Amino acid sequence: MASSSTKPTPGVSIEESIETRFHRLADSWERATAHLSSMSAASEHPIYQEIISLGPAVVPLLLRDLEGTERHWFIALRKLTGANPIPPSAAGNVPKMIDAWRHWAKENGY
Phi and psi of 9, rounded to 5°? Predict the structure, then answer.
């Protein structure tokens, strides 16, 4: 009887890439918190916290997703970068908040 071997396919990682993991988590988080009106509550969700735990490598993904989907990554970005480029006058205005992070990203090489 021939034995079967479970070897990984060449060029395919067994571990999930950070980008794939981020997108999976982001979609799960959005579904899990869609009913919440409080961004504070949504950002305390375990999935959001797991995204933050991915570390600084996820910042470019957060920035791209923020622009493309307008998902509220503002708290995660602030925690991961230590920056808060949103002026008080833009608080609550999502397009202006995104513009502030877009400007910050450009200035900081993202």
Answer: -70, 135
